[in-house]
Amino acid sequence: MSSVNCHLFCLSVYYYRFHKEDCKDVARMIMELAVFEKMPDQAKISHEELERDGFCQNPFFECLVAEVSDEHRSKDGHTVVGYGLYYYTYSTWKGRSVYLEDLYVMPEFRGNGIGKGLMCKVAKVKKQCVRLQLAVLDWNSPARDFYAAKGAQDLTDSEGWHFIRFDGLSLDNLVKDAPKD
Ligand SMILES: CC(C)(COP(=O)(O)OP(=O)(O)OC[C@H]1O[C@@H](n2cnc3c(N)ncnc32)[C@H](O)[C@@H]1OP(=O)(O)O)[C@@H](O)C(=O)NCCC(=O)NCCS
């Protein structure tokens, strides 16, 4: 539990590794983030899929959530108000790395240190990693400034990396063209 100073009150925030019961809140906030990122149609994940993939024998991801006390719940009645979803990756140059897929704090709770709290907790949980990486949309200046203020470097600017994806047909075609076992 940590206390942060708010504009109007002292807010206690509890950060913890998500439980199965938190998947509904995480799915809700994933959709809120997709709306914020102007791509609501892209978010297809259900809380059942999060439960399946986050709580199987070798989970595909991990997640930290931020919870406020009941007296500080959101206007819609939510107490889980932020999350950071991450998983391991591996750098062939540097070794163990963690990828922060999503970082999100509900609008009414922003500016109270919760985003920083989640990001620092992820870094701490994964302290055996040498890198924490993430992608941010080019127009999302507040988030880009937030990361820059915490010392992150923008690899597109400094090294020219592009972010590449295969999915749908392009992924099916790769599978089709795979050499036989
Ligand atoms: C980005 C986001 C996670 C930050 O969370 P937050 O709780 O609002 O931020 P915090 O209150 O923890 O800010 C922590 C620190 O960053 C600084 N900061 C926050 N926003 C900043 C900005 N736009 N520019 C510079 N610094 C900023 C704060 O001043 C604070 O500095 P301090 O540690 O010196 O006190 C949150 O605003 C959010 O969910 N935004 C919408 C979704 C989003 O953009 N997610 C990231 C997608 S990649």
UniProtKB/TrEMBL annotation:
Signal peptide: none annotated. Residues 34-176 form the N-acetyltransferase domain. Keywords: Acyltransferase, Transferase. It comes from the Eukaryota. GO terms for molecular function: N-acetyltransferase activity. InterPro entries: Acyl_CoA_acyltransferase, Diverse_Substrate_AcTransf, GNAT_dom. The keyword rRNA processing does not apply. PROSITE patterns: GNAT. SUPFAM superfamilies: Acyl-CoA N-acyltransferases (Nat). PANTHER family: DIAMINE N-ACETYLTRANSFERASE, THIALYSINE N-EPSILON-ACETYLTRANSFERASE. Belongs to the acetyltransferase family. This is Spermidine/spermine N1-acetyltransferase family member 2b. It comes from Neogobius melanostomus (round goby). The lineage of its organism: Eukaryota, Metazoa, Chordata, Craniata, Vertebrata.
